[in-house]
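pasting input
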Amino acid sequence: MKVGVLTGGGDCPGLNAVIRGVVRKGVQEYGYGFVGFKDGWRGPVEGDTVPLDIPAVRGILPRGGTILGSSRTNPFKTENGVRAIKDNLAKAEVDALIAIGGEDTLGVAARLYEEYGIPCVGVPKTIDNDLSATDYTFGFDTAVGIATEAIDRLHTTAESHMRVLVVEVMGRHAGWIALHSGLAGGANVILIPEQRFDVDQVCAWVASRFKASYAPIVVVAEGAMPKDGDLVLKDAVSRDSFGHVRLSGVGEWLAKEIEARTGKEARTTVLGHIQRGGTPSAFDRWLATRFGLHAIDAVRDGDFGKMVALKGTDIVRVPIADATARLKTVDPALYEEAGVFFG
Amino acid sequence: MKVGVLTGGGDCPGLNAVIRGVVRKGVQEYGYGFVGFKDGWRGPVEGDTVPLDIPAVRGILPRGGTILGSSRTNPFKTENGVRAIKDNLAKAEVDALIAIGGEDTLGVAARLYEEYGIPCVGVPKTIDNDLSATDYTFGFDTAVGIATEAIDRLHTTAESHMRVLVVEVMGRHAGWIALHSGLAGGANVILIPEQRFDVDQVCAWVASRFKASYAPIVVVAEGAMPKDGDLVLKDAVSRDSFGHVRLSGVGEWLAKEIEARTGKEARTTVLGHIQRGGTPSAFDRWLATRFGLHAIDAVRDGDFGKMVALKGTDIVRVPIADATARLKTVDPALYEEAGVFFG
Amino acid sequence: MKVGVLTGGGDCPGLNAVIRGVVRKGVQEYGYGFVGFKDGWRGPVEGDTVPLDIPAVRGILPRGGTILGSSRTNPFKTENGVRAIKDNLAKAEVDALIAIGGEDTLGVAARLYEEYGIPCVGVPKTIDNDLSATDYTFGFDTAVGIATEAIDRLHTTAESHMRVLVVEVMGRHAGWIALHSGLAGGANVILIPEQRFDVDQVCAWVASRFKASYAPIVVVAEGAMPKDGDLVLKDAVSRDSFGHVRLSGVGEWLAKEIEARTGKEARTTVLGHIQRGGTPSAFDRWLATRFGLHAIDAVRDGDFGKMVALKGTDIVRVPIADATARLKTVDPALYEEAGVFFG
Amino acid sequence: MKVGVLTGGGDCPGLNAVIRGVVRKGVQEYGYGFVGFKDGWRGPVEGDTVPLDIPAVRGILPRGGTILGSSRTNPFKTENGVRAIKDNLAKAEVDALIAIGGEDTLGVAARLYEEYGIPCVGVPKTIDNDLSATDYTFGFDTAVGIATEAIDRLHTTAESHMRVLVVEVMGRHAGWIALHSGLAGGANVILIPEQRFDVDQVCAWVASRFKASYAPIVVVAEGAMPKDGDLVLKDAVSRDSFGHVRLSGVGEWLAKEIEARTGKEARTTVLGHIQRGGTPSAFDRWLATRFGLHAIDAVRDGDFGKMVALKGTDIVRVPIADATARLKTVDPALYEEAGVFFG
């Protein structure tokens, strides 16, 4: 038995832990051989492989990024992409494929299995935690931890000066990182893509915070949008690849609006890629390692077209399509629950 | 409506986050008043209270420990303890009590409700994660993170020298911290209280590790015991308050045994109380805050005798007795799953 | 003997450690009384004071910000400012004043002593490390540590994707944070305010890095400026209060230039205020504590008009004017030394 | 020109940063070739080498430990050790040797140069900071940071319970880590090897602390000894390789003494090897990198028998013998300065 492994999409702390879990158990318990495909689906499309064995995965558990590299190559948008994959899997004598990735990467795996019978197992990955069918994905806890630590640090400045501090965190379509880090960090306003915000309401929270104690901290997901955003922000908005309207630099924009409307100074921190880099948290290593161990079990069981998922404290298997069918966004009730801390 | 709050047992990162969540929601959404009882059940027994309002909980979210203090006072082992509690609750005009604590603290709350009709709501707390009826308790994630970071640091020494490194972590009766941190830290041996270990097997893993790459790291829960421990370790064992045999300083003892049997140098790190101190992780703040928000909802609903619990990503309510009925120990299958990384 | 204490200018990790050192030694060894003035020079100008004794400084050592608050009030730019200070010091029966702050705050202290005989001792503070006459100021080590950790995290993304990562760090007039964190973080390009940069040279380094291994990380101080900046950047530049030309958002601007000229994707992280917040590093606590202990010794010795300073491992006293006479900028030779790591 | 590099003695965060600095500058600016000797002086004695070039040092800056391995081999205690070194250097065509290590490693380098004319340059390394002739050595700041973070965590437990917490830190012959981390962490008692401690005095501080606020934290260097230690502690003491009396497990011993004499519970944390492992602090990376850059400059200048050293903010060169002549211990005045925080 020979198993191919690839990682696709944006990088995410825990990818290497998955790879290590897959290979350690596959080699030691089942005697499988492995081959790594480089840069997501580009690897099988172009036949670009690297050796993957126990020495190759030694020491990678605590390291961010992915030893296999990543890309956004989509074989269904590449001429003869699927045929090339079939040829290259045959050439590499690969009997099954483990695809670690987000919506796009897993979507390809699901179609390759359903339409072409290529035996794929999926491992869900998204820093944004917006994949359905799993309680959490690895990388999310690390990102929330980094954002929370940043908010912690801003509190001391907020205590010493009279400035509004705006923190822009990741989250284009879902506000999980903003919600969790905002709650954990004691933010005074949390703005998420799921609910358009009212700048006047934000300013009212800011004002009430100044009255109650010290300067407010506003956490805003990069995909959050003001009401009437399309009209108000002629130049600042753009459309992303999904055709959604996007506000470029919402943190900076919001800080300026707050300054203009409240007369208070406002400063912005844009955390950017530091949220998805570096060593995974202990939780993410645990989750990613277990995902790896269970993904190779699915291969052994011939249970293809499935992906591993977290349910409570258990790792289960679900059809890949369950994860990619729709985005997992923040439940309005959950957002409202957090509202007690606003202002 | 006036609500009393107390924290009992060992301290645990997240206690203050619970208190803050309870008070913020209780005051702002329900208009309740609050009173803090000092040092666990000692507070209501002796009528020792502190004011508890929004200013009192400001800034405590990221702080370890508990602003209410803690103790192991048990009113059922105190003369007229229950009567004193009833009197003091009446005197303080307290209509309901939120008890945040582990097995002992919650056990008292359950009996006070069932036997004396005192309206109690519980919030589960244990650094060791060994309470049933909840997926996780706050504090555990922080402890695992601290232990994992320590193991990370030991790897570089292990790479540079030929020494066995033993890390003793918390866990008297359950090996959750050892298992999670050992897996997340890439330990080569993990020993837990649930399964007596064979020193020769440990030495075999140590030897195989030396052969494969660099020096091994052994994570041992403080409550782990060797096979035949009672006979072998005349002086080192003691009996704890439950009558269980306990090996004092198992980490140090094991290091000496490994040195004697393998001829390799071994060094011990005893993490001790640093695992339960300091700022809570983002996950623990999130969990503890939500526990607080839901505990005050249980009070509002008059749903007494219950405690809040985590099920997947939801906070639910379960009878307190479900949590205290039996210790949640590591499932043998889960321990075996980790075994692929041993040696 | 009664001593007033104030903190002025931007906040900086370690301010509280200085205050604690001053008060602990002053009370316990010399039997002095203390009074805190609120918000820098605003306190003595307006007679706004807070009690300052041993209980007031308990637990503040590890906390960022300042318990005394801060502002940029300058009594020499306030009508009757100096007279108000004299009156308020007399009213509070203050015999000496310890002023903790940067160029502006210390400059006021020096003039008050020299021109009006008000007995002042200074403690140097600047996150940017740009004060002369002291090897380091507290806060700087913390800021460098935070920036370095951010750069560390970006490396894993750089390894997994083919993107240029730009990190904008603090430093308007001096590049110390950029230089230290860039060197400690293994950045591939470091840009500082002391030397105008050539965008084509930056792009050449970026290209050579891509060839050698993985994607480059560019650290840029917020005050760094391209050659011909004034002409090229009509809209992006502004003049700060010193009349210096300033490029607003140099990180974002540079990322766009790199994208345009090299065709590679570029992403920006703006660390902002998180560099000056949160708990001080161990080094900064040690330095700030010792500054406090030595500042109160200067008061005891009647050695006014002086500030404490670090020389090697010793705390010495120097005339305040030595620190404020000129900005301590990065020596060209030191910057050149770092150049071996560029590209 | 071909340069050999070796690392000797205990591992220390920053060793890899030195190696990288040496190689990057040597190759890029001077066109030198390099060879790595394995495991300290064992490498040149046995002719055990590894290739050392720019790819070999890529990515090692943030990693603890040493890619060259380490040992305590002393060629002067090995039969024909010096002759073997001369032969192996000739065979490897090595023109100069950079030895990175502590007292022992540097002492060998000094003798090889002085007695046998082997062209050596030294780089000082000691986690304990006890080498003369340099303000600091790399690794020390990292160790102090780790110990300080541990002490920070213990404060929250100390606030919540009535327990004495003892932290044993590194430092056999010098108390630098204990002093710096104790001061930075706000410890209530600091005990160092340079001054024998009086257990009754320790208990008095403990008692006064309990009275003033919350439970005390005692930081004790592993080499600290009680007065009359030799007589009192028959079994617990041993003699180290220098013939000095050593108390094994002083932290554990002291906790028991405090319990016995004060009746208060006491708990011990032994940090052990986690103080010398893991990623170096930003300060240590900066210092180690600059040591590397200046060491290769010394080779270029033919300035042998010297080692690089930190003086203030400058890197200078001093005779190796200046560093190894005597241990740099804590000045009594400095220890007394810290005494204001005891009790």
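fyi Chain C touches chain D at residues 24-25, 28-29, 58-59, 61-62, 135-136, 141, 144-145, 147-149, 152, 155, 180-181, 183-186, 213, 279, 281-283, 285-286, 289-290, 293, 311-313, 337, 340-341 (CB under 8 Å).
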